[in-house]
Amino acid sequence: MISQCKRAAKQALQGRWWFMVGAGLILTMLNSIPSLISPATYVDEESLTALQQFIDFTTLILSILLIPLSVGWFWLTLEITRNKNVEMAMLFEPFFKMFWKSIWVSIVIGFFTFLWTLLLIIPGIIKAISYSFTLYILKDRPELPAIQAITESRKMINGYKGKAFLLSLSFIGWFLLGIITLGLGFLFIYPYYSVTYAQFYEEVKGKQNDIKVDE
């Protein structure tokens, strides 16, 4: 299944590599805005305490407001996987279709994953995998409440968590290459990984639909 997903991702990305590189650059630059606003150090912490707090608060709010952009990336990779015609505007689609829901569901996922990680790293990884289909599900079923979408993700990926982990693990070599190239390699690696995982969602969804038809 993993090799099949990778082959399908490469085929889907043919003629779209540079488009996804551009989308990835836009995603990275916009998500970097909060860190650019918040300085790493303060000259005089005592005299700038109020300013520091204001800047930190502004940075937090901006980071939250930009969450739909990352959701848009998930949706874009799903459209690429389905060989749909894509435009850069699709990256901003969640801002207009489900702004608050995309923020809420991302916060809930992060919170749940954090709580499980406090127990041990492995349970945190397992839960992160369990929630990994949530944003795709919201793309397909936007009427679902955030918590129900998370629940549907847990149900759908049940029995496939091991494969999901191995799929991510199979990209270790690529991620190391990205580090060696000082991050430049990630311009191509991240779209490849993202589209592959979206294809994995499609494969699991297709198998479950087949089971329902047989029933």
UniProtKB/TrEMBL annotation:
Which of UniProt's keywords are assigned here? Membrane, Transmembrane, Transmembrane helix
Q: Transmembrane segments in this chain: where? A: 17-37, 57-78, 98-115, 164-193
- A Pfam family that this protein carries is DUF975
Quick check: keyword Acetylation in the entry?
A: no
What is the protein's name according to its record?
DUF975 family protein
